[in-house]
Amino acid sequence: MVEISPATDADTGVISVILGEIEAYYGGDQAPADEQQIRAALFGPRPHATVLLARDCGDALGMASYTYLWPAAGADSSLYLKELYVRTEARRRGVARALMDALKGIAAETGCSRVEWTADIGNPPALALYEALGVDRHQGKVFYRVGV
């Protein structure tokens, strides 16, 4: 049974390992992420994001990282999913769907009008998941990135 719950400071270590797995998935180094950076970003005085962890019998199966965007439409807010990741051994078991359902519930509870995210074109499993969830691709945006 998959249980979805917000991460706490005590989860910093497992989040670090999962972030390393995400980096490896996209071709980077699988080294665990810096735990001090994670604590500052998630549990510091001004959190940058919230993480949900999917667990089975205490084992972390995956995570979703999200924040809020404003304005979304008019003065509405949206929940923005930055990262959805399911560990290799837990894939195809409904974990991603459970995380997406939890995100939709949080968005509704917090008054958001929608959930938004991007997906890499080179990630067919993710694209197939979103299609299976019945979500249409939004063709109206172009993604930009600049370093600071």
Tag the structure with descriptive keywords.
148 residues; alpha+beta; Aminopeptidase; five-stranded mixed sheet; 4 helices; 5 strands; 32% helix
Describe this structure in words.
With 148 residues, the chain is α+β, with helices and mostly antiparallel strands. The chain has one domain (3-132): Gcn5-related N-acetyltransferase (GNAT) (Aminopeptidase). The chain has 4 helices and 5 strands, in the order E-H-H-E-E-E-H-E-H. The protein has helices spanning 12-25, 35-43, 95-109, 124-132; strands at 3-6, 50-56, 59-69, 78-86, 114-117. It has a 5-stranded mixed sheet with strand order 1-2-3-4-5, sandwiched between helices. Helix 3 links the parallel strand 4 and strand 5 (114-117). The radius of gyration is 15 Å and the shape is globular. The N and C termini lie far apart (43 Å).
Short précis:
By secondary structure, this protein is an alpha+beta fold. It has 4 helices and 5 strands; from the N terminus they run βααβββαβα.
Strand order across the biggest sheet?
Answer: 1-2-3-4-5
Main sheet record:
5 strands, mixed
* Count of individual beta strands: 5
Give the topology string: H per helix, E per strand. EHHEEEHEH
Output the number of helix runs: 4
